[in-house]
């Protein structure tokens, strides 16, 4: 059935349905095992392989480079559908999708020539940028140092989401001149260790744990000194929002299915069956309304990212700066609305089912845990302030940002 026939509204383009039909049997297959994987804590290694084989991980590549040439709104809508099947998989490939975006925006022909063929073959790149502990905001503790004719990489990363499923790991680090650079190394290279030690209570199958780099050999050609693509903060955040929208669809469908099959009902209810009880139907309707609204908001924000990408490709610097700022603003305006809708609905869904809805085999608790976990990334408490500052003072959202211990000589806004 089409997205329209399912009541979720039209996709972002005339060709979306034709595009999505290629992947919906795969989404159905992934969704069939989602609860079992959750209950057994089985990492979706095989499922990531299915995405790779289907060409899903190369969606954004131009057709001339072996991809589908999809727009960002088309990608985001497909991620909502994948998130409906299993939200862990969207987050697990989030870093890879960002790396693809970086390749598409790169001004380095050699970098593009090296990576487009690998990506078109389905090779996956995982992230290793975030660090924990007393690390500075302005520098990484992970470093490369000269060793003979090459370099050696040493350091430790956390939140390396999906890297355990990847072929390559893209690493943010500091060079011997205290400059931020990145290198991409094989996950199986000597000295590389990726651990499945993520112990958060949500998104438990994303392998968002530790990567250790112990004296890893680095060639000069592996070092990338380019900045990240400029709409990266909005891009990464919007993938989280797409994941949330997918969760909204999944929980509304699962609860509706449970209500439809329920035979027991309360004597003080409104009908002999839950499926006929107006108050129960109201709860289910609100779940679906939250899912519909979230998807619509996310797809609207995706259009802003597409404008930023097109400005970057066209090379108009003033337009790039403005469109990137507007993309960040639109995503910031979306974030707390979508988050609040899903945090609320993932809790109130139990009102439609009673105590039996809390039984572990249903795994309905995973929705709240996953929403709460996703909502804790890139803290949402700052977004309303950023939006309000734009509305009142015309202040554009901040550019690329980092987490770590602030230098004692700096104020919170980075000024001296």
Automatic annotation (TrEMBL):
Domain Acyl-CoA dehydrogenase/oxidase N-terminal: 30-123
A cellular component term, taken from the record's GO annotations: cytoplasm
GO biological process: fatty acid beta-oxidation using acyl-CoA dehydrogenase
Record's keyword terms, sorted: Monooxygenase, Oxidoreductase
GO molecular function terms noted in the UniProt entry: acyl-CoA dehydrogenase activity; flavin adenine dinucleotide binding; oxidoreductase activity, acting on paired donors, with incorporation or reduction of molecular oxygen, reduced flavin or flavoprotein as one donor, and incorporation of one atom of oxygen
Record InterPro entries: Acyl-CoA_dehydrogenase (IPR050741), Acyl-CoA_DH_C (IPR013107), Acyl-CoA_Oxase/DH_mid-dom_sf (IPR046373), AcylCo_DH-like_C (IPR036250), AcylCoA_DH/ox_N (IPR013786), AcylCoA_DH/ox_N_sf (IPR037069), AcylCoA_DH/oxidase_NM_dom_sf (IPR009100)
Residue ranges of domain Acyl-CoA dehydrogenase C-terminal in the record: 243-377
Family (UniProt): Belongs to the HpaH/HsaA monooxygenase family.
Name by which UniProt lists this protein: Monooxygenase
Lineage of the organism: Bacteria, Pseudomonadati, Pseudomonadota, Gammaproteobacteria, Enterobacterales
């Amino acid at each position: 059935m089409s997205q329209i026939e399912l009541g979720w509204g039209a996709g972002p383009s005339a060709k979306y349905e034709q595009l999505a039909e290629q992947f919906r049997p795969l989404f159905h297959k992934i969704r069939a095992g989602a609860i079992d994987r959750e209950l057994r804590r089985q990492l979706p290694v095989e499922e990531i392989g299915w995405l790779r084989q289907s060409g899903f991980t190369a969606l954004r590549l131009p057709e001339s480079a072996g991809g589908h040439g999809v727009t960002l709104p088309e990608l985001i809508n497909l991620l909502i559908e994948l998130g409906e099947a299993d939200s862990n998989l969207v987050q697990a490939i989030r870093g890879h999708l960002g790396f693809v975006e970086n390749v598409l925006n790169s001004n380095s022909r050699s970098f593009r020539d090296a990576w487009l063929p690998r990506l078109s073959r389905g090779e996956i790149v995982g992230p290793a940028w975030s660090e924990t502990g007393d690390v500075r905001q302005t520098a990484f503790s992970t470093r490369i140092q000269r060793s003979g004719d090459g370099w050696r990489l040493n350091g430790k990363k956390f939140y390396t989401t999906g890297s355990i499923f990847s072929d390559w790991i893209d690493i943010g680090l500091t060079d011997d001149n205290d400059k931020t650079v990145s290198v991409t190394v094989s996950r199986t290279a000597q000295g590389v260790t990726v651990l499945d030690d993520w112990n958060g209570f949500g998104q438990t199958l994303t392998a968002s744990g530790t990567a250790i780099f112990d004296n890893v050999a680095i060639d000069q050609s592996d070092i990338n000194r380019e900045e990240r693509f400029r709409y990266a903060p909005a891009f990464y955040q919007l993938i989280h929002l797409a994941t949330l929208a997918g969760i909204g669809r999944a929980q509304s469908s699962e609860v509706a299915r449970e209500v439809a099959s329920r035979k027991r009902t309360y004597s003080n209810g409104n009908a002999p069956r839950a499926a006929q009880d107006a108050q129960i139907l109201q709860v289910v309707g609100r779940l679906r309304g939250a899912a519909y609204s979230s998807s619509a908001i996310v797809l609207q924000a995706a259009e802003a990212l597409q404008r930023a990408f097109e400005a970057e490709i066209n090379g108009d610097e003033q337009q790039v700066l403005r469109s990137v700022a507007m993309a960040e603003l639109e995503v910031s305006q979306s974030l707390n609305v979508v988050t609040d809708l899903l945090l609320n609905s993932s809790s109130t869904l139990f009102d439609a089912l009673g105590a039996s809805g809390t039984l572990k085999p249903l795994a309905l608790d995973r929705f709240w845990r996953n929403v709460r976990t996703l909502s804790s990334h890139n803290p949402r408490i700052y977004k309303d302030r950023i939006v309000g500052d734009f509305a009142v003072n015309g202040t554009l959202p901040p550019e690329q940002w980092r987490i770590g211990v602030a230098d004692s000589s700096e104020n919170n806004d980075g000024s001296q």
